[in-house]
């Protein structure tokens, strides 16, 4: 009978390191996210195709494993792009990584509010917000949310 508790303790001790691989560690801090650039791929009257280049900076002491990215890009109160991608990449501890998202959108539905906003501001900076929700871990991970609010000059939004 004394053998069973010892065997149980040995099995438990051998399984504990596996818990860290499954994501049962202290919580990760959300990364810093920055919109680096917006690359125009194809623009038509009713649809636009862009690539958003964003940089994720990991403030943690351990690797940040990313399994899913959901994003939203808003200009003032107008949602310009949003979507979700299943992915598989890691950001090194105290390091950063550039991530690209292909966006297909139709700005036609936002044409009047955008024109009104640009006219009201008269070239003054407009606020945009990039929100990124990350799913981390292999099996039992976390959901992290990162926000970046910055400004863009209205003249940069005028069509070519």
Describe the structure.
The chain has helices at 3-22, 111-121; strands at 32-43, 48-57, 64-75, 78-91, 96-105, 125-136, 143-153. Helix content is 19%, strand content 51%. It has two helices and seven strands. The chain is of the alpha+beta class. It starts with a helix and ends in a 7-residue tail after the last strand. The model is unreliable at 155-160 (pLDDT under 50). Strands 4-3-6-7 form a four-stranded antiparallel beta sheet. A three-stranded antiparallel beta sheet has the order 1-2-5, with no helix packed on it. It has one domain (26-157): Sandwich (Immunoglobulin-like), CATH 2.60.40.
β-sheet strand percentage: over 45%
Number of helices: 2
Q: Report the count of strand segments.
A: 7
Largest sheet: 4 strands, antiparallel
- Percent helix among the residues? 10-25%
CATH superfamily: Immunoglobulins
What distance separates the N and C termini?
A: 82 Å
Task: Provide the low-confidence segments as ranges.
Answer: 155-160
Helices and strands, in order, run as HEEEEEHEE
Based on the structure given, which CATH architecture is correct?
Answer: Sandwich
């Amino acid at each position: 009978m004394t053998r069973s508790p010892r065997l149980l303790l040995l099995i438990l001790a051998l399984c504990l390191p596996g818990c860290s691989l499954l994501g049962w560690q202290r919580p990760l801090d959300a990364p810093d996210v920055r919109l680096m650039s917006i690359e125009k791929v194809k623009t038509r009257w009713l649809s636009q195709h862009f690539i958003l280049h964003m940089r994720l900076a990991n403030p943690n002491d351990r690797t940040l494993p990313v399994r899913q990215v959901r994003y939203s890009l808003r200009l003032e109160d107008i949602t310009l792009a949003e979507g979700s991608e299943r992915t598989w990449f890691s950001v090194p501890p105290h390091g950063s990584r550039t991530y690209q998202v292909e966006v297909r959108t139709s700005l036609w539905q936002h044409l009047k509010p955008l024109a009104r906003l640009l006219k009201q501001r008269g070239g003054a900076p407009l606020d945009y917000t990039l929100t990124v929700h990350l799913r981390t871990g292999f099996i039992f991970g976390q959901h992290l949310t990162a926000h970046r609010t910055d400004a863009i000059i209205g003249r940069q939004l005028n069509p070519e």
